[in-house]
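FORM 7B: Structural annotation worksheet

SECTION A. Query
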Amino acid sequence: MAILSGTAVEKQARFKIETSAAAEHKAVSGLRVKIYADGADRSAMLEMYANPHIAGFTTNPTLMRKSGVIDYRGFAREILELIPDRPISFEVFADDFAEMERQAAEIASWGENVLVKVPITNTRGESSAQLLRRLARAGIRVNVTALLTLEQVRKASECLIDGPLAKISVFAGRIADTGHDPVPLMAAAVELLRPYPNLQLIWASPRELLNVFQADAIGCHIITATSDILRKLDLIGKDLNEYSLDTVKMFYEDARKAGYRL
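SECTION B. Predicted structure
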């Protein structure tokens, strides 16, 4: 199947951004983008599971290590027993493609709601394209991770367009960390994937709640965010004058509780 050229994608993306620029914030229930919780803290995941606006979950070895997970398989199986009905992505952690493939097959066997996260390259910068093709042919649903360029999105797409449902995670937050606006690239990625109903784009590693609305405005399929960002969903639509007053009260109360004197 043909992939749109970079020029065509970027033109469509610019049009999409221009037509969405004036979009106002809407209630969470009115968002088209699906919200996934990113993390590996059991209690936080269950808190998010109780929220009907959270449509799925993602994790990775770094988040699992930060949360003190020691038994990878045991943690994953426990979470899948507690969260059996929403998509959850678990990541391979090998650096050799043959071992990645073995791990992917095992992880995929853990449940029908499981997707296998596979990095776009190994630590030597070698492309995982051939592995992605083999996994797609085997019917394994993958979530390609750690992408930061449109060319990486294009290459991953070429490997997956004839396979089962797959997700492509572009780390928009890391793009922003380098001083580049991620919105044009993410909009271009949306257009690149538009012809392929089995491929879904994830806006990964957001830095603020505003990114949810940016992802929604460009038609991104999914945004995944950590619990500290997702807990701010209750602030959507809050009156800014009221929020200003709340901020003043917070400063006053913290100074009072600290017993500051001049």
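SECTION C. Observations
Residues 15-24 have pLDDT under 50 and may be disordered. The longest helix spans residues 240-258.

SECTION D. Sign-off
Analyst initials: ____
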